[in-house]
Amino acid sequence: xxxxxxxxxxxxxxxxxxxxxxxxxxxxxxxxxxxxxxxxxxxxxxxxxxxxxxxxxxxxxxxxxxxxxxxxxxxxxxxxxxxxxxxxxxxxxxxxxxxxxxxxxxxxxxxxxxxxxxxxxxxxxxxxxxxxxxxxxxxxxxxxxxxxxxxxxxxxxxxxxxxxxxxxxxxxxxxxxxxxxxxxxxxxxxxxxxxxxxxxxxxxxxxxxxxxxxxxxxxxxxxxxxxxxxxxxxxxxxxxxxxxxxxxxxxxxxxxxxxxxxxxxxxxxxxxxxxxxxxxxxxxxxxxxxxxxxxxxxxxxxxxxxxxxxxxxxxxxxxxxxxxxxxxxxxxxxxxxxxxxxxxxxxx
Length: 348
Hints:
With 348 residues, this protein is mostly beta strands. The chain has three domains: 118 residues, no CATH class; 61 residues, SH3 type barrels; 123 residues, L,D-transpeptidase catalytic domain-like (Beta Barrel). It contains three helices and 27 strands. The strands form seven sheets. Strands 1-10-21-20-19-27-22 form a seven-stranded mixed β-sheet, with no helix packed on it. Strands 2, 5, 9, 23, 24, 25 and 26 form a seven-stranded mixed β-sheet that branches. Strands 6-7-8 form a three-stranded antiparallel β-sheet, with no helix packed on it.
């Protein structure tokens, strides 16, 4: 899908460039590793911190396995058309018109040449169709954590010093979804700059950070969803167990934001359709959405097979996860009444 992918990546880059970060400094115990406490703007390198980076070059985590679960082996398509004629068979007789569009994905029951059966006894031409490509991104389970870690949310170059110019040649480059430790933090003006490797500083606006301490503490299993960091952490009491990037409600309209607060999961549905915003330009209809975990009436944690925009505001209020991450939560963490704490950048 070259055209739609190009548009999506342009939107991602634009969002990244305008994404605002918090103007407060992180608490001292959240700014990095204790061995890097001597790092400052004037002293961006110390032997003690160099030793920490050499000993712990990467976060001590294990990737969540890629697993499409209940939708494995299935195909989904959207159409570059507002309406699509449906036939009784390939090259057959038109029976009705199907309301389509780029926000509607349909489950392919079977294909025959350039035709797909998308409803029983209803066939559509694949001429204007595009197949979904589920994201291969997965979060991580946390083995041990004594400093924050983060994902980069767009491609870029690191800087040699906090607040310095990007320097791909000397400090190196990074790619979207790269995972890295945060060894130290220095505030330059209103922005935090994070030391992620020897001579590698990245501004906070390109990172989704997982902190050592939870925003609140609840008993047993619960999840915290940061709408600023665009990430989710599964906790057992105070202990972070699993973390991943998410996409929460689009901020263009208030009605689409993911509501902050403490909620409880009140409905579980392994796979089924989702639709909303009927009669408006924002209408969407999605077949076979995997792993619905509803926590606030219309809002749910669930897997998505139709985009790869994790780390950005994107949804109609739900918390979008890769299918693999949604399956992990479904299999290992979420049951009825599990608490979901949605919070903003104030970590309050």
